[in-house]
Amino acid sequence: FVEVPGIKDSTHFRFWLFTKDKLKETRKRLNQGAQERIKKRNNSADIKPLSAKEERHMRLYFHNQLFAACARYRFPFDVTATVHTFWKRFYLSRSIMDFDPRLILPTVIYLATKAEECHINCEELARMYKLKNEWITKNEVPVMEGLNFQLKVYHAKRPIKEYVARLRKNPLVPDGNLDKMEKLAQQLVLDSYFTDACLYYPPAQIALASLMMINRKEKVIEEQSLIESCVNTGGEKVSAYEEKLKRRLEEVGGMLKKGEELAKTWASEKKKKLNEAAAKIYVKKIKPCLDPLLNPSTEEYKKQEEDNNKEAEAARMKKRKRRRQEEEARERKLLGSDEPDDGQPFTIKRNKSFKPKPRPSPPPDLM
């Protein structure tokens, strides 16, 4: 596969790629932890936490809103991919019952544009979601904490370009079809964010599988020739590990195909209405579950912030007083004063008993 520089030593490769069992276990543990916290916060039997299935549907519904937002802003590939990756990663370390997805969604967009150096107006983003500007900015740090401050994301776009460049060297491939093939492969990768493909497979594998799937539709080149042209074997024949390679590509390709189907399904008007109806039920159910101390729109959050500001100001005043006392102590030591510190501002007092020495008499006149 194409070797993306630095990816094997990256946090992306070491911390954000999972097996299917590990990913399922992580989400199950998050859901159970959130349910326990809700029960401790609220003793009311009327408050029922979301099940793991309900939480997944809620997460998918709001994730679909990210696709709409990215299409509206016409983000480039890298920004769109980073937005979706941040969303998936954040809700792998935080539960949707702890952090309101209606606030996290615009925050993820805003943070991803910063990470990819693509300017977006925060006030305009807040207006689009009918939120206050400060609610987005105050959620930036919690989102980064959920991402473990690991903001570097590797995408399949670069490997796709490298594979296409290798295919251009193959005389059997019509050069005019490769640009279309590259564009369709990138769209297929973007559709794959409806699934968890980016959490299972490295970008190079997703890229090659996307080209393989598009090639099956467009019939640009024989599949065997495509794989041999793209895969750098270091002199070793592809046939030496062909079965294992094709099995992995089929697995990834199946995930890409599922993403393409989901993209079409979620785009249908019938599905939109069903999802909106289900989302209203889930939003109504999730409101009492949310921790008010993690939501900038609540009075509890504002009071907590005021208390924190008062404590911080008191700590600053205490530190300032201690620094002033240390400076006064240094001045007394410098001026040789042994008077104890009574807590009052240090002043230099006049010595009334001081008598200057008389001037020495002038030398006698020898002339």
UniProtKB/TrEMBL annotation:
One of its GO terms (biological process) is regulation of transcription by RNA polymerase II. The keyword Glycosyltransferase does not apply. Residues 349-358 have a biased composition (Basic residues). GO terms for molecular function: cyclin-dependent protein serine/threonine kinase regulator activity. Residues 299-316, 324-336 have a biased composition (Basic and acidic residues). It comes from Lotharella oceanica. InterPro entries: Cyclin-like_sf, Cyclin/Ssn8, Cyclin_C_2, Cyclin_N. Residues 294-367 are annotated as: Disordered. Residues 155-257 form the Cyclin C-terminal domain. Residues 40-151 form the Cyclin N-terminal domain. It comes from the Eukaryota. This is Cyclin-like domain-containing protein. Keywords: Cyclin.
